Amino acid sequence: MAKGYWVGRITVHDPERYKDYVATATPAYQEYGAKFLVRGGQISAVEGEARPRNVVIEFESYEKALACYNSPAYTAARKIRQEIADGELIVVEGTEG
User: Fold this and answer.
1) Taking the model in full, what pTM does it have?
2) 3-class DSSP assignment, residue 24
3) C-alpha–C-alpha distance, residues 20 and 79, integer Å
């Protein structure tokens, strides 16, 4: 079974309130077995425009990645994030290779 991934590109406008987002999202991440592969860190915009915060989260499957995003715990966290940050988040299925 192919793994699932969240790929997020975020510009945070309120770093203090972002801590509330992280605290609210953590139970969902734990419940669905999220593994952070990229969380912030140094970036080089080699093509196109970049955002200052980039995240890649791995899940056991694409279905679990979507379930986490749609879970009640993450829905509450998402509301906070959308109030204090701009960005893009996609859920993508990995390869089985």
Assistant:
1) 0.93
2) helix
3) 11
Residues 73 and 34 sit within 8 Å (Cβ to Cβ): no
- Each residue's pLDDT, cut to its tens digit, for the chain (97 residues) gives 899 999 999 999 999 999 999 999 999 999 999 999 999 889 999 999 999 999 999 999 999 999 999 999 999 999 999 999 999 999 999 998 6
Sheet holding 85-93, edge to edge: 35-39, 53-59, 4-12, 85-93
Query: Which residue matches tokens 């056991």?
Result: 60
Distance CA 56, CA 33 (A): 14
For the chain, the 3-state helix, strand and coil shares in percent, each to the nearest 5, are 40, 30, 30
Could you tell me the domains of the chain? 4-93 (3.30.70.100)
d(CA 38, CA 54): 7
Q: How far apart (Å, rounded) are the C-alpha atoms in residues 21 and 25?
A: 6
